[in-house]
Design brief:
- This protein is an alpha+beta fold.
- It folds into two domains: 8-54 and 101-161 and 270-312, FAD/NAD(P)-binding domain; 163-267 and 324-408, D-Amino Acid Oxidase, Chain A, domain 2 (2-Layer Sandwich).
- It has nine helices and 20 strands.
- Strands 1, 2, 8, 9, 10, 11, 18 and 19 form an eight-stranded mixed beta sheet that branches. It has a seven-stranded mixed beta sheet with strand order 6-5-14-15-16-13-17, sandwiched between helices. A three-stranded antiparallel beta sheet has the order 3-7-4.
- The longest helix is centred in the C-terminal third of the chain and has 17 residues, at 296-312.
- The relative contact order is 0.16.
- The model has no long low-confidence stretch (mean pLDDT 95).
């Protein structure tokens, strides 16, 4: 549609204002000293059904980070509890486990973008992206119903994929969380309950409780499953009620809010490019770690690499968010979990009990060396993992639906 009227022209168009879109836009809004600035337009969906609902991101990093002023809380201790109540309590220094809500991140990003001469924000629902001479056209609809067209040399699309790429294994990390306030102090605000396996285990996959205490009387408490499909809202609430009142025994409390989500855990190969000058970023480009569901840290690495390429005048193909070795190990683990070859709660409990916490978190971020990976491998069920590793090359890749993520 070369004859379409163009309302906005820029070097870069960023589609979507979630974690990936905002992270990239912020880096383009603050070019480093000596870098070549680029102009960008951020196309953000207006409030309504096309905007992602509230969500909470957690990640770990050493020391201070760029989003610290917006954090809800942070911790330097993690706990894992086995099904029989065995507790593994680990300090993670020099790392800190950080909790960031999407409204706080959006507010922080809004302040960062407001004073930048390089990034302009346009509220619009993007309907299609098409190649054009020397770049691409992004067509959207403003809140008043009028059309808007942006032309850019490079487009970075963070919208969720309508369908996951074919995969040998696809599980779903699905969860529902309650923000609770208790009548008396019951939470240890110094530690995160990362995986509490004292939940009834499903016949396929695994389940656990997850507690992010923001004070002695406040916490986000989640019930999480790794399995093939999400549950209904009533099933999550029953599981949460059992966990909160029975397992945790927190007594009188009120639920002040909730959030719910479904995250694909898949060994699919996510395409990072959809046209000559159109790229995918974020979860749509495989930023979600297949074995854990963590996404935010990989999004930051990817956004940093793309911004650096743009500021240096290089072709800005987003890098793969996770190293090849990590993706292979995750594929083996997913295959073993899906086939029931390993006991998921025992597997994760043993890892946290046997491997130094900071090293294990670096491993989960894909930042460990070969020798460190081998040392961690000594604490996994070798026979089961070997069977899956040998079976993996013969497992067919099949299409699967993108799980719906309902969040509030």
């Amino acid at each position: 549609m070369e004859g379409a009227a163009v309302d906005v022209e820029s070097d870069v168009a960023v589609v979507g204002a979630g974690a990936a879109g905002l992270s990239l836009a912020l880096r383009l809004a603050r070019p480093p000293a000596g870098a070549r600035p680029v102009t960008a337009v951020l196309l953000a969906a207006p409030p309504g059904p096309y905007r992602a609902a509230r969500r909470t991101w957690c990640y770990w990093e050493a020391g201070a980070g760029p989003y610290d002023e917006a954090l809800t809380a942070c911790w330097q201790r993690l706990r894992v509890r086995s099904g029989d109540g065995r507790t593994v309590d680990r300090a993670i220094a020099p790392l800190r486990y950080k909790m960031l809500s999407s409204p706080a991140f959006e507010e922080l990003a809004g302040r960062g973008l407001a004073g930048s001469p390089w990034v302009r924000t346009v509220q619009a629902v993007v309907e299609r992206v098409e190649s054009a001479a020397g770049g691409a056209l992004v067509h959207g609809r403003r809140p008043d119903g009028s059309q808007v067209t942006a032309r850019a040399r490079w487009v970075f699309d963070s919208r969720p994929l309508p369908r996951l790429p074919p995969a040998r294994t696809t599980l779903v990390q699905h969860f529902r969380g309650w923000f609770v306030r208790t009548a008396r102090p019951v939470f240890d605000a110094t530690a995160v309950e990362l995986m509490d396996f004292r939940t009834p285990q499903p016949p396929h996959g695994l389940s656990f409780g997850y507690v992010l205490p923001t004070g002695p009387r406040e916490a986000l408490v989640e019930y999480t499953e790794f399995s093939r499909r999400p549950l209904g809202p009533e099933a999550y609430d029953r599981a949460l009620r059992r966990y909160v009142t029975g397992t945790l025994g927190i007594g009188a409390h009120e639920v002040t809010g909730w959030e719910q989500g479904a995250i694909p855990m898949t060994d699919a190969d996510f395409p990072r490019q959809s046209a000559a000058r159109v790229f995918r970023i974020g979860a749509a480009a495989g930023a979600t770690r297949p074995a854990t569901g963590y996404t935010f840290s990989a999004v930051q690495r990817q956004a940093g690499a793309v911004a650096a390429a743009l500021h240096a005048g290089r072709r800005p193909l987003p890098p793969r968010p996770h190293p090849a070795r990590s993706r292979l190990m995750d594929a083996v683990l997913l295959h073993a979990l899906d086939r029931g070859r390993i006991d998921g709660p025992a597997f994760f409990t043993e890892l946290f009990a046997s491997v130094p916490a900071a090293r294990l978190l670096r491993f989960l971020d894909g930042r460990t060396s070969w020798p460190e990976d081998l040392s961690i491998g000594l604490h996994v069920p070798a026979a089961a993992m070997l069977r899956s590793a040998l079976a993996l090359p013969f497992a067919p890749r099949r299409d699967s639906r993108t799980p719906r993520a309902e969040t509030a």
